[in-house]
Amino acid sequence: SKKEEATIPEKIIVGTNAEFPPFEYVDDNKKIDGFDIAMMKEIAKRMDVKIEIKNMEFKSLIGSLESKTINAVAAGMTKDPERTEAVDFSDSYYTSSQVMIVKKDSKLKKMTDLKGKKVGVQEGTTGDKLATGENFGEKQKPVVKGVDVRRFPKGVNAVMDLKNGGVDAVVIDEKPAMEFVKNNKGLKIVRDKAAEEYYCIALPKGNEKLVKEINKQLKAMKEDGTLDKLKAKYIDK
Ligand code: GLN
């Protein structure tokens, strides 16, 4: 019943896709780490509940939340209207936008230059939606049409395909793009006007109590500097 659902779980089971540095990645010791993970651990600690991290494909996260395999998603996930029909979102903890990764000698300059080009994306992401011409947010601009979209399970697969002469560009969130360009020679980032995207924690639909509690902890962590400290440690290193 609705009443049963509206409780704080004893354990936060966080679904993520640890292929999205610096927000989540598998570190040298094969442990899942990153900004989102550290943030969720701190939230769980403050709520005095246990935490477990489950690594899965990005496109499976919302479904896992709906089927209750997990009860939170921290995956650099942008709040958008389609997802909001299936899940509830916390307040935003990070603002991002889409950029293009291209080879250093590429002439592509604008999102609209992608028309007729092969573009790699991570399946099910807002980068996928942008390249597909879906207007995933009120402010999404420009709407890109006529792109030959190639979908990959991980962003890094798309980047490898770009390096190997497959796709002409990769559309992906800015900070992961910066990590991929840093770790792969011969690539550059092209920034064009793209909508602001707000990363939020996705939570089961209808558990207002949980949303409130998570928002309370996020607010406290914003106000006491904890979130800024984590940003400095993981993102703006
Ligand atoms: N922010 C993008 C989205 O929400 C990408 C997230 C990701 O690939 N982990 O779709």
Automatic annotation (TrEMBL):
Top-rank taxon: Bacteria
Transmembrane segments: none
Domain Ionotropic glutamate receptor C-terminal: 11-237
GO MF term set: ligand-gated monoatomic ion channel activity
Residues annotated as domain Solute-binding protein family 3/N-terminal: 11-237
GO cellular component: membrane
Signal among keywords: yes
Protein keywords: Signal
Annotated SMART domains: PBPb, PBPe
InterPro entries recorded: Iontro_rcpt_C, Solute-binding_3/MltF_N
A Pfam family per the record: SBP_bac_3
PROSITE patterns, per database record: PROKAR_LIPOPROTEIN
Protein name in the entry: Amino acid-binding protein
